[in-house]
Amino acid sequence: MTSFEYACFISYRNSRQKENGLLSVFAKQLSDALERTLDTRLYEDIARQDNDYMVFLDDNVIQTGDFVAKTMGDALCKSICSIVLFTRSYLGGSFWCASELHGMMKVERHRLDTLQVKPTEMGFILPVLFKGDIKDMPKALRQRAFEKDFTKFTLAVKDITEHEEFVEIIEALAEKIAAIQAAILEKNTDICGHCTDFSLHDIETDEGRSEIIQFVEKLKSGQYTPEQPFS
């Protein structure tokens, strides 16, 4: 038994021009396309509460006045998996992205331990290269990155579902998410039970920012070992 509210959590570096920047435009198109594609592939309906989205995208869900670290952490914890849209600035330009990835890795560790499976058997983080080079990814992401990428996307693309190469990746992502859900359902274990106790590090605080800086340094050097998010 699980209590997922989202099929996936999309993590990306917000554009400086938030409404019409390249990444913001792409993330919205990807979210919409995944919503439609996942609808026919999931093995069990997502128990969405008070929201209209199957895919978590901050611009769609975050409301004014929300405590961002808690809201984002709760959504991440209640998503089947997370998609990382990787660019060179993903870790270097945004403490929030790094905080999200830190949370993803902690939640994944908890799930692997709870389900008693090895990292090579099931992963809950799906990195996809958006801009840059695969070598820009830390090893922990690079070794699990999708074979195909979205590097050819430009603002000239008005609908990614009209481009065969993008549709292929979207369908592969949807199939992967559905497969993860099916594997979890087979285990018949609630892996969302502790989500109310989980939040991301708040990078607006000195302590939170310090924790994330240390995380990025360890991740880039290959020395980071995910810890349990719950006591």
For the structure shown, list the relevant keywords.
single chain, four-stranded parallel sheet, 231 residues, alpha/beta, Rossmann fold
Give the helices and strands, then pairings.
Elements (H helix, E strand, L loop, with lengths): L5 E6 L10 H17 L16 E2 L1 H4 L6 H10 L1 E8 L2 H4 L2 H21 L9 E5 L9 H4 L21 H24 L18 H16 L10
Parallel strand pairs: 1-2, 1-3, 3-4
| Overall outline | globular
Largest sheet: 4 strands, parallel
CATH architecture field: 3-Layer(aba) Sandwich
Give the overall average pLDDT. Answer: 87
What Rg is obtained from the alpha carbons, in whole angstroms? 17 Å
Order of helices and strands: EHEHHEHHEHHH
Helix content estimate: 40-55%
The total number of structural domains is: 1
- Beta content comes to 5-15%
How many angstroms separate the termini? 22 Å
Number of helices: 8
Fill in the CATH topology.
Answer: Rossmann fold
Q: If strands are numbered along the chain, what order do they take across the biggest sheet?
A: 2-1-3-4
Please count the beta strands (DSSP E, at least 2 residues each): 4
What is this entry, summarized?
With 231 residues, this protein is of the alpha/beta class. The chain is 43% helix and 9% strand. It contains 8 helices and 4 strands.
